[in-house]
């Protein structure tokens, strides 16, 4: 694998770019691995990377039924933040932000993590009280936060209608300066390339169709390329977690919904931060290419269709126009959907599945992309040692029995 | 809290209706609206039941809402509460719903701006989501006369939507 | 007349000249022109610059497949960014400017970027900008990106009309096939709607001399006549941009320039896709130069607009359909040089002006190169609906395969490229006959891009993706179609790959040495063309967006100078009076404790639950025991979620054996109603329980304070208000001017309090009587803000403010049911979980501050003492109490209820204060005033 650098780019430019090696191999699936990871999205690939990097475990296969990064990792709105409420969540998501901060250098792949801030608006006095509570929680959890007034928001986001004429005027808000956006495909590709370089086999177009059980323990998987034995299996398949669970025989407290996302035609810069307006139910940022990227609430009918319908489109885009009326004449370029798994407390599931030999990384709902580095890091630890770290333990599946939920329904974004 | 008294037009600004282009919206005073629920309510009432798209011609009638619920319009006064003999729950809802008629050449074009509806798709219930508001929508007296019941607190919103849609329908005709 | 405009021919009106400018230069066109056709007629070639390298670009096609001619257009003071010149009808006075070029498309100062193309290849930004920090480079990249600039001005009147509609048959596309399909369907009795995105119907029909022995214009007119005579409807200038579940099609109907499209949400039983086909690009050296155009685009320019694309034209084509177009161009006076892209290795010569084409053996001086590498059916809507595609070797194209439910394709969209078979096929389909795809006469030689040339060959004209980029991507193993597309950004420009998709697939196939269909297909997503965001917004704006609910007494409140605020979806008096709110609120709260306050409580939920199982049902829904209530009694209770979390608090009144009234909090009425309806059907017999939400049938006037009894007594209601006859937490019925008044003695303020409910049409009468009676005892209306203070003084909670997503009833001090209620209730098991039993749970407490200190900040956190403080809870409500003369506050604090008397640290925004934990009730803890005898 060739090292990336400006110098290398300069040299290759002169040579017609013939010297770049493969970003990742297309290896043949072996018959056995120490770890098999089901799901070649950001979480699965990051897990493989950290298994090799942090734990020296390299006989790892990542099995992806389609093309790597083609699930939710390639469909999200690219927001990265750790402005959650509970200390457990703050630890989890901020671990991710910190890993993102060094990720391009670590992976030698520019993931374009742009820390342009993540602003959550408050639209009433009650909202401001909640924002204050949130702001203080963040600061006490050691997360960077700013409590902004309406005037400060007006200066930062001139295109936002903060005035009293807006349907939901802005009273103020909470900003996380270290939050922002990243290039989603680059995260998947960067982790894939780095994991591959360390010897991990990434097998695309390989669907897991069943589990191989011996004496009540999972010892491998059945795939469209044949049987593979595994020391331990990790499932990181996002919206298909329940489907896989049915195959393996474990239950998950998950509902899967379509989540739609939208991008406009590219325009010259009008917005340089990420803005979430909860009263309107929409959040928006502008990509480096110039397109406005927006998202909102779920299509409320459970579905694996990876597509949504017009009422939600009208709701989300209509809300954007209420927030930023000048954008009415900008055109929508494309919209798409992913499948998000919503848990009762809007927090993820990390840990044993209940079936011996199978571990879970799922239930991220609408917030999986920001957590890719942390999810991979913690899942690698689980698969390597069979143990939780302090950061992952609160998200174990058993919390639904003990009742120790981490209720982030407010901080997870738009109402679920 | 934010003082929004000037942000919202005073309730009742649109009064008892308006006329825009080929659309007339007018308030209807009904003498009584009675909500009746029960497992056999549809067989128990002795006035015509109204669904969609039939045209109601009676003055006293029952709007079909659910398998087990109707709204009797202009019926006799009846005591509120649970009636064991008939297994009916009854509630006076006369002040719960404001009632408006929508008529004119563009009336149905206004209706189609608020909800997905067609004469070819019958419905046993007259409940609809109309511009996001729950309403009862049915035809009265004429093919192009539509009657709407809306919860009283949303009356201003309904009139606002109708006004906007009537303007759109008129503009579409003039274009 | 310019040299590129034919003296006759086309659909334009040469008697109506139109003046316009492009990049500051004035030109003339005609009515019926588009911006692009008028510019072409005037010999303008360079109409834009490519996104990355800023290479000069001319127009490629004549319609929506155009990737290059993007302009900001102004007319009458209205600016629209990113208009496609090929689909923008020309209007007098239009001023067009190229985007992403300065000072003009012809002379762009960033044109020099192309010199660095070697280092700006696809994905270059993934390989660099890593050191020292991406943030250093990003701002410049952001400034360079984006097409048009968008002003912050709001376009006046730019609002979309939106409407629902339905039909039996929706025909998408008004070309020859679509027209005859629509006529056949309409004549067979179907309700038909035909949509076409051109202002004038006919599609590519004008490229033929005759259609069914008529001239095209006459033939089209005859179809339109037949269609309307059979009751069919036509929507011109309307794009079907997306197909959604259950046969819903999104249509955007264009209006005059500067107006937003009308949105039609069209539900169709059957969709006939007659959307035609696109020309296929050919990859060859310097194929991006101005003057290289789509052959069928040129045919359209001639047919519709009477414009010759050029005079000395090289035609590059590998198929037999090019002949017909070539003949028409020759008949119109062009000199044609045929070039075979299969056997020759073409290379364009010329930078801003096309000079010649080098075939590899010879050089021909030409001013235009027209290209057609095949015909590609437009199958976007087919794919939106989940239809499959089949690869056709003969056509070297993807054609519709297994159909989605309710959709059928005809004509060129179905791969039926010949005119007569297309008409026959379409008529059959229109009449709902089953048809098979007719054979096609096209003779096509498979064209494989030639790899490894020195000169660059373009795949995506807007995003500057070249064949070398594809080769590099393959080399790096980004070989699956989506990886290829995302890595190179091919097909992700504003033309959404209409010209680059097939070229990209062909290139990847060549690189990998496989057949094209093995490479795969990219996904097609709505919208088919970029659609203004306003189309999804509509006139539902401002007040009409999530409108607030209005009180029956609003007029009275306005007359009393009320500050109306949004609470829980209602517009309610926050306080009365203008100017600084604080003094009004404090005065109202004080008055309510000294004499009385009058509050409009109409939004209070009044949901009746009736039936023989009503009692058992409510006993199950509520945490508290309801079963034992007697008629006339009121009980305070919680509704829990299955997780044991407090969802709503409120009071229940028992009216009779089988009748209860649930008075849930005003902001939760819809939620509680839905909750009751859901549980009524789950594990219960719904025929024995009925839920009637009568909240808005009743207005409620609340009188609270020591003078409340005197005030109510003066209303002449004939009710014994004495404490013995009418104790707290009971209700009575009375008559007020012949109407029923339900008087509940229930208190949110902690003082003697009566809530009087009367039918809404009598609200004003009752209010007037109460206010008049109030004057006599020194009582007046009070708003929500004052009431918030009163209830806080008493330690009464507001759900969602003093409770959060973890709060269980015993955290609020209500533990009897958890300990003793044996009957099942929603949430019961969750209250016994491990977490529910922990000692350190956050519990509701009061917070007292030192004499003279300011109130605590709501949202401040209680913290552990010492080095790295950790949050142990927060302040949920905090006010200055005018009656008590000191601040009162409540909070949820870990183990708080067991720590009464302790002093804690309270942290807000880096500042620390101290507070003492106390019982949440600061006012009348013994309840003497509440039960006021």
Description:
With 416 residues, chain A is α/β, with parallel strands linked by helices. Chain A has helices spanning 6-14, 42-55, 87-107, 125-140, 150-156, 184-197, 241-248, 310-323, 372-385, 399-402, and strands at residues 32-38, 60-63, 79-80, 118-122, 146-149, 172-176, 180-181, 201-203, 208-214, 217-223, 226-235, 255-264, 274-277, 282-286, 292-302, 331-342, 349-352, 358-362. In chain A, strands 1, 2, 8, 9, 10, 11, 17 and 18 form an 8-stranded mixed sheet that branches. The longest helix of chain A has 21 residues, at 87-107. Chain A is globular, with a radius of gyration of 21 Å. Chain B has 175 residues and is of the alpha+beta class. Helix content of chain B is 18%, strand content 35%. Chain B is built from 3 helices and 13 strands. Chain B has helices at residues 41-44, 107-114, 155-174, and strands at 17-20, 23-27, 33-37, 49-50, 55-56, 61-66, 69-73, 81-83, 88-92, 97-103, 127-130, 133-140, 146-151. Chain B is globular, with a radius of gyration of 17 Å. Chain B starts with 16 loop residues before the first strand and ends with a helix. Chain C starts with 12 loop residues before the first strand and ends with a helix. In chain C, α6 (295-305) packs across α7 (322-331). Chain C is built from 23 helices and 48 strands. The chains are: A alpha/beta (416), B alpha+beta (175), C alpha+beta (933).
């Amino acid at each position: 694998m060739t090292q990336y650098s400006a110098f290398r780019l300069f040299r290759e430019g002169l040579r017609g770019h013939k010297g770049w090696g493969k970003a990742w191999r297309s290896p043949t699936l072996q018959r056995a691995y120490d770890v098999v990871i089901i799901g070649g999205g950001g979480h699965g690939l990051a897990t493989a990377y950290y298994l090799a990097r942090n734990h020296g475990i390299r006989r790892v296969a990542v099995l992806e039924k389609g093309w790597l990064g083609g699930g939710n990792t390639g469909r999200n709105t690219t927001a990265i933040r750790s402005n959650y409420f509970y200390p457990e969540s703050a630890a989890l998501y901020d671990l991710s932000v910190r890993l993102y901060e060094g990720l391009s250098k670590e992976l030698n792949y520019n993931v374009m993590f742009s820390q342009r801030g993540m602003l959550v608006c408050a639209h009433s006095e009650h909202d401001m009280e909640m924002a204050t509570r949130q702001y203080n929680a963040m600061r006490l959890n050691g997360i960077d936060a700013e409590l902004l007034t309406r005037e400060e928001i007006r200066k930062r986001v001139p295109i936002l209608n903060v005035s009293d004429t807006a349907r939901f005027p802005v009273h103020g808000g909470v900003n996380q300066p270290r939050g922002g956006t990243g290039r989603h495909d680059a995260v998947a590709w960067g982790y894939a390339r780095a994991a591959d370089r360390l010897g991990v086999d990434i097998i695309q177009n390989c669907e897991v169709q069943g589990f191989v059980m011996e004496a009540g323990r999972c010892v491998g998987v059945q795939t469209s390329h044949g049987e593979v034995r595994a020391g331990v299996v990790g499932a990181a398949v996002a919206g298909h977690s329940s489907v896989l669970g049915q195959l393996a025989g474990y239950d998950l407290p998950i509902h899967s919904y379509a989540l739609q996302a939208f991008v406009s035609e590219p325009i010259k810069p009008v917005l340089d931060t990420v803005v979430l307006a909860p009263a309107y139910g929409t959040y928006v940022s502008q990509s480096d290419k110039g397109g406005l990227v927006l998202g909102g609430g779920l299509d409320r009918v459970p579905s694996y269709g990876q597509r949504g319908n017009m009422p939600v489109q009208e709701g989300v885009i209509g809300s954007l126009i209420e927030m930023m009326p000048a954008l009415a004449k900008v055109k929508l370029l494309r919209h798409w959907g992913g499948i998000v798994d919503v848990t009762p407390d809007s927090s993820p599931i990390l840990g044993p599945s209940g079936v011996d030999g199978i571990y879970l990384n799922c239930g991220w709902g609408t917030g999986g992309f920001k957590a890719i580095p942390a999810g991979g890091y913690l899942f690698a630890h689980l698969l390597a040692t069979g143990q939780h770290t302090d950061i992952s333990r609160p998200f174990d599946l058993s919390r639904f029995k003990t009742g120790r939920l981490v209720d982030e329904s407010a901080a997870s974004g738009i109402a679920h | 809290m934010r003082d929004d008294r000037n942000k919202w037009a005073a309730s009742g600004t649109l009064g008892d209706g308006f006329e825009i282009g080929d659309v007339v919206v007018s308030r209807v005073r009904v003498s009584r609206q009675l909500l009746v629920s029960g497992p056999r309510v549809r067989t128990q009432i002795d006035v015509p039941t109204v669904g969609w798209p039939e045209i109601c011609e009676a003055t006293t009638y029952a709007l079909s809402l659910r398998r087990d619920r109707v709204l009797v319009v202009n019926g006799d006064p009846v005591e509120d509460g649970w009636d064991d003999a008939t297994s009916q729950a009854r509630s006076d809802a006369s002040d719960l719903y404001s009632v408006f008629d929508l008529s004119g050449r563009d009336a149905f074009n206004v209706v189609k701006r608020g909800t997905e509806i067609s004469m070819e798709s019958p419905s046993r219930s007259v409940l609809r989501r109309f511009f996001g508001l729950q309403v009862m929508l049915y035809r009265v007296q004429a093919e192009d006369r539509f009657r709407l019941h809306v919860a009283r607190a949303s009356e201003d919103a309904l009139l606002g939507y109708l006004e906007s849609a009537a303007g759109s329908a008129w503009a579409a005709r003039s274009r | 007349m310019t040299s590129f405009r034919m003296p006759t021919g086309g659909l334009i009106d040469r008697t109506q000249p139109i003046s316009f400018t492009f990049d500051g230069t004035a030109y003339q066109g005609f009515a019926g022109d588009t911006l692009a056709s008028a510019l072409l007629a005037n010999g303008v070639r360079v109409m834009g610059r490519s996104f990355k390298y800023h290479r000069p670009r001319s127009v490629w096609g004549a319609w929506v497949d155009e990737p290059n001619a993007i302009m900001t257009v102004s007319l009458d003071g209205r600016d629209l960014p990113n208009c496609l010149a090929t689909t923008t009808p020309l209007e007098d006075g239009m001023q067009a400017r190229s985007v992403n070029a300065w000072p003009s498309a012809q002379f762009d100062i960033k044109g020099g970027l192309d010199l660095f193309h070697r280092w700006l290849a696809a994905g270059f930004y993934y390989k660099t900008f890593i050191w020292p920090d991406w943030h250093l480079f990003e701002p410049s990249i952001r400034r360079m990106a984006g097409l048009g600039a968008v002003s912050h001005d709001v376009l006046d009147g730019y609002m979309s009309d939106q409407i629902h509609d339905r039909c039996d048959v929706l025909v998408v596309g008004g070309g020859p096939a679509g027209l005859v399909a629509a006529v056949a369907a309409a004549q067979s009795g179907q309700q038909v709607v035909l949509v076409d995105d051109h202002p004038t119907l006919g599609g590519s029909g004008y490229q033929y001399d005759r259609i069914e022995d008529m001239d095209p214009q006459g033939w089209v007119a005859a179809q339109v006549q037949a269609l309307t005579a059979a009751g069919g409807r036509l929507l011109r200038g309307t794009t079907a941009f997306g197909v959604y579940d259950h046969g819903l099609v999104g249509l955007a109907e264009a209006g005059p320039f500067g107006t937003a499209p009308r949105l039609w949400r069209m539900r169709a039983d059957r969709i006939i896709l007659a959307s035609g086909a696109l020309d296929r690009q050919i990859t060859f050296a310097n194929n991006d130069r101005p003057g290289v155009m789509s052959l069928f685009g040129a045919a359209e320019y001639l047919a519709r607009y009477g414009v010759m694309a050029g005079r000395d034209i090289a035609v590059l084509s590998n198929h037999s359909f090019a002949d017909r177009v070539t003949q028409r161009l020759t008949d119109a006076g062009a000199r044609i040089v045929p070039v075979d892209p299969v056997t020759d290795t073409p290379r364009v010569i010329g930078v801003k002006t096309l000079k010649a084409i080098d075939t590899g053996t010879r050089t021909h001086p030409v001013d235009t190169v027209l290209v057609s590498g095949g015909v590609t059916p437009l199958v976007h809507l087919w794919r939106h609906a989940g239809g499959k595609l089949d690869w056709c070797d003969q056509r070297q194209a993807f054609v519709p395969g297994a159909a989605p439910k309710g959709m059928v394709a005809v004509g060129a969209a179905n791969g039926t490229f010949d005119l007569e078979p297309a008409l026959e096929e379409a008529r059959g389909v229109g009449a709902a006959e089953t048809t098979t795809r007719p054979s096609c006469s096209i003779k096509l030689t498979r064209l494989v891009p030639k790899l490894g040339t020195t000169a660059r060959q373009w795949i995506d004209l807007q995003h500057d993706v070249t064949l070398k980029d594809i080769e590099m991507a393959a080399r790096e193993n980004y070989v699956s179609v989506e990886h290829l597309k995302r890595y190179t950004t091919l097909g992700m420009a504003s033309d959404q790959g209409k010209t680059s998709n097939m070229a990209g697939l062909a290139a990847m196939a060549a690189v990998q040495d496989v057949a094209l269909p093995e490479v795969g297909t990219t996904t097609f997503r709505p919208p088919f063309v970029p659609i203004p965001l306003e189309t999804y917004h509509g006139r539902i704006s401002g007040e009409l967006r999530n409108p607030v609910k209005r009180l029956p007494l609003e007029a009275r409140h306005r007359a009393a100078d009320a500050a109306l605020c949004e609470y829980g979806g209602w517009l309610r008096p926050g306080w009365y009076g203008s100017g600084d709110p604080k003094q009004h609120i404090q005065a109202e709260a004080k008055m309510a404790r000294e004499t009385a306050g009058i509050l409009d409580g109409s939004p209070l939920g009044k949901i009746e639950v009736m039936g023989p199982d009503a009692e058992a049902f409510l006993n199950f829904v509520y945490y508290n025991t309801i079963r034992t209530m007697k008629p006339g009694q009121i009980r305070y209770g919680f509704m829990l979620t299955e997780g044991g979390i407090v969802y709503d608090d409120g009071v229940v009144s028992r009216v009779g054996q089988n009748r209860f009234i649930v008075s849930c909090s005003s902001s939760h009425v819809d939620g509680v109603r839905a909750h009751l309806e859901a549980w009524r059907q789950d594990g219960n017999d719904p025929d024995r329980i009925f839920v009637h939400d009568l909240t808005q049938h009743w207005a409620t006037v609340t009188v609270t304070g020591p003078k409340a009894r005197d005030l109510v007594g003066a209303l002449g209601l004939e009710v014994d208000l004495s404490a013995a006859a009418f104790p707290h937490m009971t209700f009575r019925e009375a008559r007020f001017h012949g109407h029923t008044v339900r008087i509940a003695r229930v208190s949110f303020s902690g003082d003697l309090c009566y809530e009087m409910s009367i039918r809404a049409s009598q609200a004003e009468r009752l209010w007037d009587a109460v206010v008049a009676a109030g004057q006599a005892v020194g009582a007046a209306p009070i708003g929500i803000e004052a009431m918030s203070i009163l209830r806080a003084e008493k330690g009464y909670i507001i759900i969602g403010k003093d409770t959060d997503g973890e709060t269980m009833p015993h955290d609020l001090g209500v533990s009897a049911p958890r300990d003793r209620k044996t009957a099942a209730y929603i949430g019961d098991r969750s209250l016994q979980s491990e977490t529910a039993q922990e000692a350190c749970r956050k519990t509701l407490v009061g917070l007292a501050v030192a004499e003279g200190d300011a109130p605590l900040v709501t949202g401040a956190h209680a913290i552990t003492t010492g080095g790295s403080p950790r949050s142990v809870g927060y302040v949920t409500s905090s006010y200055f109490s005018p009656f008590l003369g000191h601040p009162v506050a409540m909070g949820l604090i870990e183990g708080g209820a067991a720590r009464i008397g302790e002093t804690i640290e309270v942290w807000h925004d880096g500042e620390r204060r101290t507070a003492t934990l106390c019982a949440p009730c600061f006012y009348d803890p013994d309840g003497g005033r509440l039960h006021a005898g």
